[in-house]
Amino acid sequence: MGLKLGTSGESFVLCKFHKIQTRTYSLKSGKVIPSETWYGEQKKKTKSSKVKEDQKISQTDDIISQKASDSIDVHIVGKGSKGFSRAVVINTTSTRYLFNCGEGIQRFFMVDKLKIAKIEHLFLTSNSWSNIGGLIGLLFMLENIGVPKITLHGPPNVEGISSMCKHLGQSDGTKLEKRLLTEGNYEDNNFKFQYVPFFRKKEKTDEAAFASKKPKLDSLPVEVSVAYICTPKPSIRRIDIQKCIELDIAPGPCLNLVKTGESVTLEDGRVINSEDILKPLVQSPSFIKCSHSGFLTPLINNEGLKKYQNTDENTPVEMTVDLIIHLTPEHIVKLPEYQQWINSFGANVKHMIFEDTFSNVMDDEGSKIQSHLNLLHPELFPLLPALTTPTSTLPDMTSNIITGENNLKYHYKPYTQLSRELITQPNLEDFQSEITRNPEITEAIDNFKQEVAKLKSEIPKDDRVYPEIVFLGTGASTSSKFRNFSGILLRLDDSKSIMLDCGEATISQLYDHYGEKTDSILRTLNGVFISHMHADHHLGLCGIIQARLDAFGKEKKDIPRLIVAAPSSMKRWINYIDGRIYPVSAAIKFFPLQRLKLEDKLNIAKLLNLDDFNPVDVNHCLGAKGLCLKYNGFKLVYSGDTMPCNNLVRHGKDCDILIHEATFDEGMEKEAKFKMHSTTTQAIEIGQKMKAKQIILTHFSQRFKKVPNFTNIHTSNVSIAFDHMTVRPCDYPYLSLLLKPLAVMFEDAIKINNIIKMKRTQKDALKLESEAAQVKSHSS
């Protein structure tokens, strides 16, 4: 059975099976055939035998015209660590049903190569940001692969979130179809879903918690939590070959009727029914979600759930629960009343719970690269906490309590089994041994360290560690297992910091980078600069705001508002979130970049403890800005997204460091111009015109997986950024020295990049040739 309950917009799903009535048919007996040849279960069928088999099964198809899936499993795609939601996918042979869609969900699907195109339904247990933060990113991804529609189930006022993104609102791509709670039950070939909404009054925000008066909010007076009762539809039960052999029953076309619940009378008079020769019904799991103590009372007292408590071996299968997945924060699970409620289901019911952790490292590949780079320079490439802390205990079935992990799968149709095959446990020693066993890479690393030591002896000692630049996302447009969306944390000192852009899942990257120290870092965050309104640069803002508030804890009297300097159109997005998700405006002070006057710039600089705050127009989309800022004599320029821009050069003259986008490779100038971005060479040329002391390239096209093509860079003050790379002023002299060892470490990746580039060039050439032929044909 399968249950799923929630709070604050959380929910439960209850899956049930129903019995089928039987009738009687006659069948002539025959000889018993060895089991390995029966129905091709172990022996591969020939084409002719498959045709015959199809003819036999066609009798069943007449009875069940819409066949339910023979395979169902539950896949954990979000274990609920800090910055990420608790989310699961129900997989069938034809469809995937996603429950909750937090920030970074599309990256999870990419990392594990899950077929995101099969997602047809999204069930939201609440409209909290932790559950819907990845919705727009998911829609972008579905649109890019040509998925026509996805159906949204859940609380009211969620579907409008897609219209906040101009591209999605005007495109003919993936349609977001909302199904209202008032429409009642929904069903398809595999399941019947029943909506069970819960309500509670919203808590008032304490205005005194913020540094200035809280603006009036147009918000709903109640929070909605939706429960989903999910009943799997009956599929054809498979014949148990061993049972047939034991009963001396020969195969025949009418045996297929037994799969549908029919009874069959043999020639010797015996009546064979489904229970005699079919494999048993498989129980379905239950999902319970309760994210707020305010929903505990309706959860515990729910009559619909009580009937599944205190069951035993004599309880009918349709009234039992096999597994309950508690998509619930750990602190609520530990409450005595919640523990009592768990125990009320009896010892035979298994419970999957989720531990609150600071790390959500989703794959080995990204962690592996970070561990490799750490051997090169530990300060520039610090190890992620997940690589240095003890790994969690793998889930097992030795008790009725199972710890949920990313990629844990629970199969319950056609068989019940817990699968750990996809769970990854990053291992630092194994990762780094791949490098230490390679003599060429080891030599390159040793040579780099010798060059650094030599350079240190030749230049004045520099102990400056601030401003510190932490790259949280260095990819363009979308995310991958190696690079997240744009996001840079600029730490001015140990008590003040600023965020430069924050794409989706920036908060997850922050938790991955700092682990248990993240809350203290968030308390230093004074401001966020959003360069433009493309989704890959701003969809992480709400997650940052919410996590920052949580980091301050219950002592809200001294919480300073977060300065948000962003395009004017960002206000529309904030207003939407403000009225439907949570009161964003109460936690921020918003400055529209297009309307900034000199006094506003001076005010922002003062609030952020800067000497100068100067947003400048750049050549990208409407309203796009770069940023020039000064702090204690240090000048930093951030390009945002832009084509080569002389205005940026003029304002950024003689900067200490230029962080410039380099989306496209050399030779892709036409595509760069069309999409209003820069190539690697163009970005370097801008830095040279600007007379920047150091140039760090970022925002690389995700078509180049591990690294961009950088072997053509020969300038002494240029380096490339990686996710989690941490740069301090004392490191500047050594940055460009990284390129040589990186070329050796990523030699194979660079070769793949060149192949991709060559194929792209050939494709473009063929396209131009075709277009030229068409022009010539029309002219003649």
UniProtKB/TrEMBL annotation:
Q: Which cofactor does it need?
A: Zn(2+)
Q: Which GO terms describe its cellular component?
A: mitochondrion
Q: Which UniProt keywords apply?
A: Endonuclease, Hydrolase, Metal-binding, Nuclease, tRNA processing, Zinc
Query: What InterPro entries does this protein map onto?
Result: RibonucZ/Hydroxyglut_hydro (IPR036866), RNZ2-like (IPR047151), tRNase_Z_dom (IPR027794)
Database matches in PANTHER family: ZINC PHOSPHODIESTERASE ELAC PROTEIN 2
GO molecular function per UniProt: 3'-tRNA processing endoribonuclease activity; metal ion binding
Q: Source organism's superkingdom?
A: Eukaryota
| Range of residues in the leader sequence | none
Please give the Pfam families that the UniProt record associates with this protein: Anti-Pycsar_Apyc1, Lactamase_B_4
The tRNase Z endonuclease domain, residue ranges:
88-134
Reactions that this protein is recorded to catalyse: Endonucleolytic cleavage of RNA, removing extra 3' nucleotides from tRNA precursor, generating 3' termini of tRNAs. A 3'-hydroxy group is left at the tRNA terminus and a 5'-phosphoryl group is left at the trailer molecule
Q: What's the protein called, per UniProt?
A: ribonuclease Z
The biological processes this protein is annotated with in GO are:
mitochondrial tRNA 3'-end processing
**Recorded E.C. number(s)?**
3.1.26.11
Family of this protein: Belongs to the RNase Z family.
What EC class is this? hydrolase
